[in-house]
Amino acid sequence: MESPQKTERYGEVAKEIAAVLDGENNVIARMATVSNILHHAFDHYFWTGFYLVDPEKPDELVIGPYQGTLGCLRIPFGRGVCGAAAASRETQIVEDVHAYPGHIACDARSESEIVVPVFNGAGELVAVFDVDSDRKSQFDNVDKMGLEQILKGVIA
């Protein structure tokens, strides 16, 4: 998908997500809905979902709502792409996960990845949103901007 079409698609999906989430306060329901809608909105999304900061182990992520094949159950901060996003609190884009040092292969078919940190209203990291593709070089700044915008409204 070319950048202009992808930008337009993120805009459409953002409106759809906002409409569906309107009035729903349960965080898990909101995350499950976002994962589902985004997973089915883009052909290049292979695995789509959240890893939550574990309140009992605040330096570790635990699997949350997702769409796709089996995900890793736990990821320490600083390990793999998700752990890097959690530790740095910055979006990570990886064109070839097999070339990424310390990549965690939850599913060997994953080829590229984007991970966006998710913050609550107080600015605390509560999760990361992870999207894998089974094709290399599928994520760019358009995905980064689109996902960051959508995820701002997921957790109050």
Task: Give me some keywords for this one.
globular, alpha+beta, 6-stranded antiparallel sheet, 156 residues
Biggest β-sheet strands, sense, barrel: 6 strands, antiparallel
Share in helix? 25-40%
**Terminal Cα separation, in Å?**
31 Å
Strand order within the widest sheet? Answer: 3-2-1-6-5-4
Class computed from helices, strands and strand pairing: alpha+beta
- Sequence of secondary-structure elements: HHEEEHEEEH
- Helix count from the secondary structure assignment: 4
Unreliable parts = none
Rounded mean pLDDT score: 95
- By DSSP, the count of extended strands is 6
Strand content: 25-35%
Radius of gyration: 14 Å
Shape: globular
Set out the fold topology:
Elements (H helix, E strand, L loop, with lengths): L2 H19 L5 H15 L5 E8 L2 E11 L6 E3 L3 H9 L3 E3 L17 E8 L5 E9 L7 H12 L4
Antiparallel strand pairs: 1-2, 1-6, 2-3, 4-5, 5-6
Helix pairs in contact: 1-2, 1-4
